[in-house]
Amino acid sequence: MPARPSERLRALGVELPAPPRPVGSYAPVAVSGSLAFVSGQIVTKEGAAVDAGLVDRDVPSSKAKELARSATLQALSALAAELGGVDRVRRVVRVGVFVASSEGFDRAHEVADGATDLLVSVFGEDGRPARAAVGVARLPKNAPVEVELLVEIG
After folding, report:
1. Which end of the chain is more exposed for a tag (fewer CB within 10 A), N or C?
2. Is 46 or 124 the better-scoring residue by pLDDT?
């Protein structure tokens, strides 16, 4: 396995998307000391949420898991833009995955694996974070999944 996260991304055939632009009064990434906080990321296309709706009613959980992975790639893109690359990430400390859930859907943890599986692939064991997988009633733009990150940087 390649040593640096940027090399691992290349080896996985993964290209980071363009860095997200805020749609409100917030920063995509806030750095404080050795910590970088990435604002919540939803997957959009042309300003609208991709596969909008509630997971399990409108969006299959397998698709939501893919969206969690895509939102995590956006978060990494935001980090790369702020830090000059992903290689400054020393450890993924925490991931929050919010899942817009239909009534009775209790598998937010499975959707969240889309985020954390990717992070472990890119950062190895340093990518295995503490995690919150939370079912919510609604997300911005009717997105099915939102992902936020907290990372230690060097």
Report:
1. N
2. 124
